[in-house]
Amino acid sequence: MINRIQMPDPALQKVLPPVRMQSGIDYVPSRFVVQFEHRGTRYSFNTLTKECIEGGIPSHAEAVEQVADLIRGQFLVPSDKDEVQYYTSVSSLFRAFTRKSKIGTFTVLPTLACNARCVYCYEAGREQVSMDAKVEEQVIRYILANRQSGSIKLRWFGGEPMLRPDCIERICQAMRDEKVNYRGYMVSNGSLITPEIVDTMVNRWKIESIQISMDGAEADYIARKRYRTYHDEYHTVIRAVDCLAKAGVWVLVRCNVDRDNVDRLSGFFADLSASVEDKERVSIHIVPLFSERVGEDDLSIRKRILDVYPLIEQSGFRIHRSIQSVSTFSANHCMADSGCVVIGPDGSLYACEQCPPQSRFGDVWNGVTDGAARAEFIRVDRTREKCRSCPFLPDCTNFASCPVENTHCRKSLEMCTVEALKRMIDRKIEQHAEDSSGSGSGNEPSDC
């Protein structure tokens, strides 16, 4: 009997074809199986099905009853199976199974202007255009004509979207006028968020969650954000985090790090902890800068990030992990292939929030004018050659047009995935110990 630490994703199981044992076939470990040790015990995790079991996987096996569960669970597969093609087929089927005919998420860039000049900004050098009244009106028409039924998500991006609260308000007002059920999400540097505007964000824009970028304690923050004129934005943003969390907004604080500031984050966590009361609504996401991810130091920086995680928890905040959930399969790993649309300040439609020219496929006046370009950008049958042997292919953007490519992505994904699995196992062990100690105490079980 297999001791299952985590069951496979039930949504994926609905589309997976049944697996039957075949006599006379040489079975080998699936390329999607990751094996690791923790607390002296061997574990195996399938990155495709998300099933995690206790024990290792034999290097070769025949179709016998002793390994039947491993074969049915796709831990063991025929040695001649093309697993990349199989994954592509499964992913496409899952997309078809979950795809909606209308758009559920609209990412709107009211402006490309920004009051900061972050050293890592990928929009540096682009014309800082903003939406005018005619574009706003057509954006409203486009959203109303192409939205899915039920609730939609309006995601505000930039530039700095808070430079155009008037634009956000007009679009949201139009949704209310048309009785559209919408939810809001924002990516912002937080420097223009005041206690007075938080009420508007929550009650009129219906912001449920927000990502705010901060890059360390005050000295690092100033050096990296490079505000055109600095007015104590560091403490302003921390106050904004506190106000948003108190108002019920889930706040994700993104720390962009490099080899210089990754070891100085403890001071930032201390400042944040001292000022934010509702810490349960705040999670921290530590991300290496793109320049580091494509360099040779990528892996060492990610290891240093793992060392920082305990400091986040000690400060009372949640840890946000960049990898896909270890329990849920997803066919969509970024905005481009998730069925949403990005609307630029000039009304152009893009598949990717970074708005690369090759992902433009139309505009809000004419809709999709180049469907072939969009389809070409997100083709899933063009897996990069270096990705074909990677066990983490199901957890990664699987189309070759993606502009993001990390040097040590395989090792860093393994490091983060195994760390997340170990934490899951520890929680189960702790829960089992609590249940065992309580079962013999003679006390009534708690309702909590």
Distinctive features:
single chain; alpha/beta; eleven-stranded mixed β-sheet; 17 strands
Helix content: 25-40%
Beta percentage is 15-25%
Low-confidence stretches: 439-448
Summarize the main sheet: 11 strands, mixed
| Discrete helix count | 13
Mean pLDDT: 88
What class, by secondary structure content? alpha/beta
Q: State the end-to-end CA separation.
A: 33 Å
| Order of secondary-structure elements | EHEEEEHEHEHEHEHEHHEHEHHEEEEEHH
E-strand count:
17
**Alpha carbon gyration radius:** 24 Å
Q: Which descriptor suits the 3D outline?
A: globular
Strand order of the largest sheet: 13-12-11-10-9-8-7-14-15-16-17
Written account of the structure:
This protein is an alpha/beta fold. Helix content is 34%, strand content 17%. The protein contains 13 helices and 17 strands. An 11-stranded mixed sheet has the order 13-12-11-10-9-8-7-14-15-16-17. Strands 1-5-4-3 form a 4-stranded antiparallel sheet, with helices on one face. Strands 2-6 form a two-stranded antiparallel ribbon. Helix 4 (133-146) runs parallel beside helix 5 (165-177) and helix 11 packs parallel to helix 13 (409-439). The longest helix is centred in the last third of the chain and has 31 residues, at 409-439.
